[in-house]
Specification:
The protein has 197 residues and is of the alpha+beta class. 45% of the residues lie in helices and 14% in strands. It contains 6 helices and 5 strands. A 5-stranded antiparallel beta sheet has the order 1-2-3-5-4, with helices on both faces. A hairpin with an 8-residue loop joins β2 and β3. α2 crosses α6. The radius of gyration is 36 Å and the shape is globular. 27% of the residues are buried. The N terminus is likely disordered.
Length: 197
């Protein structure tokens, strides 16, 4: 009888130990319901500098026109100031290209306006555009190109362009102007796509 009691007591002790051992958790096992979910880190793309935006636009405009992109000479601050009459206080970044020969006029110019100067910059470029339109010494083949030229403000950026690489010599003036206006839409599309407005 004593043996039987000892066996029963032994089994009871083992069972109690097992139950007590199962109630506790090991220290290195964390309760998943208490573990905080890590917050994903959202990294924002750094905003592009205006000069980089303008370079990107120019590269994509060239790509859009391909072989029909004719400007080859880079413009500089002297050209903007002396030829286009754009004061350097109106912008803090610029890019532009125009023809190497005076017989051609196709050009693309973009500026990032300094704070509060978008309208003044647009006025300066419109005045330059008017000067070209009123120049009676233009080659006849360039008249429709100049008449169809565009001054466009998008956000803090202002552009002047006349592009297309078209041959409109055999067209009437109205038809030729419309063809150049249509060709300029590719540049406008690129500008809006890159700036996002």
């Amino acid at each position: 009888m004593k043996k039987k009691n000892l066996v029963v007591a032994g089994v009871g002790v083992v069972m109690i130990a097992a139950v007590l051992g199962g109630c506790g958790k090991k220290k290195d096992e964390a309760d998943p319901s208490l573990t905080p979910t890590p917050t994903p880190v959202v990294t924002q793309e750094p905003e592009q500098a205006p000069s980089e935006v303008l370079s990107d636009i120019l590269a994509k405009v060239k790509e859009a026109y391909g072989e029909n992109y004719r400007p080859q000479m880079a413009y500089d601050e002297t050209f903007y100031n002396e030829v286009m009459k754009v004061d350097s206080s109106l912008y803090d970044a610029a890019t532009g290209e125009g023809p190497m020969m005076s017989a051609h006029v196709e050009a693309f110019v973009g500026f990032h306006a300094t704070e509060g100067n978008v309208d003044a910059l647009k006025e300066a470029l419109t005045a330059y555009q008017d000067t070209l339109k009123n120049d009676t010494f233009q080659y006849p083949m360039n008249v429709p190109i100049i008449q169809a030229s565009v001054v466009e403000a998008v956000g803090d950026y202002v552009f002047f362009y006349m592009l297309g690489g078209l041959d409109t010599m055999d067209m009437e003036d109205e038809e030729a102007i419309k063809a150049w206006e249509e060709a300029n839409k590719a540049a406008s599309g690129v500008i809006h796509e890159v700036i996002g407005e």
